[in-house]
Amino acid sequence: LELTRSGVEVLRQRNALRTAQLELGRRVGAAGPVDAMPLDTTPAPDLPIGLPEALSAALDQGPQYRAARADERAADAALRSQRSDFFPSLAIGALHQRYDTEIFPGAAKVSSVTFSLSFPIWNNGQREIEVSRARVARDVARTIRQDLERVVRRDVSSAFDTYQTSRAAVSLANVGVQVGRENYRMQEMRYRAGASTILDLLDAQVDLAEAEADLVRSRYETRLALARLEAMLGRRLFSNKDAP
Asked: Which stretches within 62-125 are classed as H helix?
């Protein structure tokens, strides 16, 4: 029964790996599956910036926050443009002519300068409608920007704390792997000496596999939290050789 369950689990994990390789290939523009290069197992370094600096950098340089501020400025400019239709417009024109009726004309000259002032009074309410639409668009853009600025503290703090927690989890998981290996070694020696049963040996083997899986998950969560934080900041925090 356990062998059958293990075989089914192997098939599931193999399918998951195949799907992940195809997804990685799609993201890098490859036509087929792509296998990732193995990463080193060096401990993840501490972040080079603190939480207050990360919050400030996210608001100043974060792509989505900069886009929200740009949208608000564009909406505000559109509103000012629509309001200008209520103001009078001044037009200036100039004319210069030379004419005569003789074969050898005396070249009479006529010059004129015109000024015109127009003041729109009513255009079936179109100005009011357009101003109202522009004001709503400006208010929506401002609300989105304000909401993102409120959310940035939560998102950046979450990614920052997750990275630090994952680093600590990696250290604890390393200890768990060492304990699991030692326990498995002892159980194997006891089993060979006839002092324990095969079930004890299998339990130790399962505990070791779970400890190693916890270590892999902790490393993955560390890199995922770092990638999320860098995406919000809009820049890399480590060079390629220093990246965890």
From this structure: 63-83
Q: Both 102 and 164 in a single domain?
A: no
Distances (CA, A) of 82 to 76, 118, 138: 10, 17, 12
Q: Tell me the mean pLDDT per 10 residues along the chain, length 244.
A: 84 92 88 79 84 86 84 90 77 74 61 76 78 90 87 88 92 93 92 87 91 91 90 82 52
Cα(237)–Cα(47) distance, rounded to whole angstroms? 7
What's the token pair of residue 215? 């270590």
> Are residues 156 and 128 located together in one domain of the fold?
yes
Q: Which residues have CB under 8 Å from 184's CB, separation 6+?
A: 201, 204, 205, 207, 208
The answer on 132 and 110 residing in a single domain is no
Q: What is the DSSP letter of 92?
A: E
**Domain range for 91:** 87-118
DSSP single-letter state for residue 88 = -
Q: Residues 100, 164: one domain?
A: no
Find where tokens 């040996």 sit.
201
Whole-number Å distance between alpha carbons of 220 and 189: 33
What token pair was written down for 179?
């304990």
Amino acid at site 202: L
21 within a domain of the structure (yes/no): no
